[in-house]
Design a protein that fits this description.
The structure is a single chain. With about 475 residues, this protein is an alpha/beta fold. It has two domains: about 40-390, TIM Barrel, CATH 3.20.20.80; about 400-480, Immunoglobulin-like. The protein has eleven helices and 23 strands. β6 and β7 (about 125) form a beta hairpin. α1 packs antiparallel against α2 and α9 (about 305-320) packs parallel to α10. The chain is elongated and about 80 Å long.
Length: about 475
């Protein structure tokens, strides 16, 4: 949907809301504020298929925000997003409703009301999955509108396998658990065992009516109003286990999204979160690749130079294979996390973020409610300093160009305009600048502190060598002086 069409949709929404005068004034003020700021985002896949565009402006997605910010009402959305954007983050992977029943002090909010009769496994009234919770959708709107104001794109995870897996803090408190709702859906187990085999079942008509209603309501609420959303079917779907119908269940959602687009005249960005088999079997319904379960490289304790090359190989090979943006949402991408088996140090996290960018990819990690978005600043430093480096570049023309570099560096370049390099462990490199015209400016960048060294001019014939200031990681940017 174009920006003008989205404005028209907003006007239609305001017209409907006019029937509720008490709510109209702040909405009108919001509409004019957004229009004046040019904040009606229109995220699409760029022509080069590596990056994104927002109304023609190239976009690289980086972030590591709060995963449960929507269902956790103890979190101040505006406070989080203001802080988040100040660090240069422009994307957050947000769960729609996962683990909302686990929020402390009953502060979680979900799509369905707790009406009873009877009590769920947590001792509170059971859910009615046939009804909708208006307060939940108000929270969804509050979040997406705040993100749009602050230039944050939302990787919106609809379902989540961790919330379906066995455990008293997982399936036991999931509203779809047979002991937690009044709807008596067939085939769904109670207790604390796994609900995966039963939940991923597109042949269970009663179950799919509830799931379809949730996703249809989500799209009705968001598709025409927001252009800052990438929809993800579910986190880790069939990633940690092998359920018999998971692939068919995902295909159901691909078909669902495509039918919704046709019916409503909207364009929706849809991502997977499963193994590459879904792509190799066709996967034409996904416009974006979530790389979480694709990469075969280890992160923890992997030497930086080796890690950078493994990331480059994985991202560039998968781009050639699937010709779509590659986005890493691995939890270990956030060096401030403390509860993950493959957690990274700040140095390794920096290498991971920078290597994805120099390979033509993106990183959107996340924190859980328990860890909090106030738990550390390592990821924020990485993102802020990387964003400073990125902001100079003609991204729409740049592609990974390993053949231009001889030495321990990754290279993203538009050979006649600009060359961006990342040296994960210092060293010396030679850069082929023969395609460039005129005088060039070369400048070292310290990704640890976000500081540029003084630029020096060179001629294309002077392309070799460049030696990093020390054995730490460094960025190097070479561009035409004009």
């Amino acid at each position: 949907m174009s920006a003008s069409s989205r404005l028209a949709a907003c006007l239609g929404f305001l017209d409907r809301e006019a029937k509720r005068p008490a709510r109209l004034a702040p909405l009108v003020a919001l509409w004019f504020a957004l229009a004046a700021a040019g904040a009606f985002a229109e995220l699409t896949v760029a022509e080069n298929k590596r990056f994104f565009e927002d109304n023609g402006r190239p976009v690289v997605l980086f972030g590591s925000g709060l995963w449960t910010i929507i269902p956790d009402t103890s979190v101040d959305i505006e406070e989080h997003n203001r802080w988040y954007a100040e660090w240069g983050a422009n994307a957050n992977r947000a769960a729609l409703y996962s683990f909302f029943t686990a929020v402390a002090n009953g502060g979680g909010i979900g799509p369905w009301p707790r009406t009873g009769p009877g009590h769920a496994n947590d001792g509170k009234p059971k859910f009615d999955l046939a009804q909708s919770n208006p307060a939940f959708w108000e929270r969804v709107h509050a979040y997406l509108e705040s993100c749009q104001r602050h230039g944050i794109y939302v990787w919106l995870q609809i379902f989540g396998e961790p919330f379906i897996e066995e455990g008293r803090d997982r399936w036991f408190i999931n509203p779809f658990n047979a002991g937690n709702n009044v709807n008596a859906l067939p085939g769904l187990p109670g207790g604390a065992g796994s609900g995966e085999e039963a939940f991923y079942d597109p042949d269970n008509a009663a179950l799919m009516r509830v799931q379809d209603a949730l996703v249809r309501r989500l799209l009705d609420e968001t598709a025409a109003r927001y252009g800052n959303v990438v929809y993800e079917i579910g986190n880790e779907v069939n990633a940690d286990s092998v359920t018999s119908k998971a692939a068919a269940w995902q295909q159901h959602w691909i078909d669902f999204f495509r039918a919704y687009e046709t019916q409503h005249g909207v364009a929706l960005l849809l991502s997977n979160n499963t193994r590459r088999s879904q792509f190799d079997a066709g996967g034409t319904g996904f416009q974006v690749v979530n790389h979480q379960h694709f990469g075969q490289f280890g992160v923890k304790d992997n030497p930086p130079a080796n890690l950078a090359q493994e990331i480059f190989a994985a991202v560039t090979q998968d781009f050639e294979r699937y010709n779509r943006p590659i986005v890493n949402s691995r939890p270990c991408s956030d060096p401030d996390r403390t509860d993950y088996w493959d957690i990274v140090s700040e140095a390794a996290g920096r290498c991971l973020y920078w290597s994805y960018f120099l390979s033509g990819g993106h990183v959107i990690s996340f924190r859980t409610t328990e860890e909090s978005w106030k738990g550390g600043l390592k990821a924020e430093r990485i993102i802020k300093h990387l964003r400073t480096f990125i902001d100079r570049m003609p991204l729409e023309d740049m592609t990974p160009r390993p053949g231009l570099v001889n030495g321990p560096a990754l290279c993203l370049a538009a050979p006649d305009q600009a060359y961006a390099l990342y040296l994960p462990a210092g060293g010396a490199v030679t850069v082929d600048l023969s395609a460039a015209q005129g005088t060039l400016a070369a400048q070292w960048y310290d990704p640890r502190r976000g500081l540029w060294r003084a630029a020096h001019t060179i001629q294309p014939r002077d392309g070799a060598p460049f030696t990093a200031p020390d054995d730490d990681d460094w960025g190097l940017y070479i561009s035409r002086e004009d």
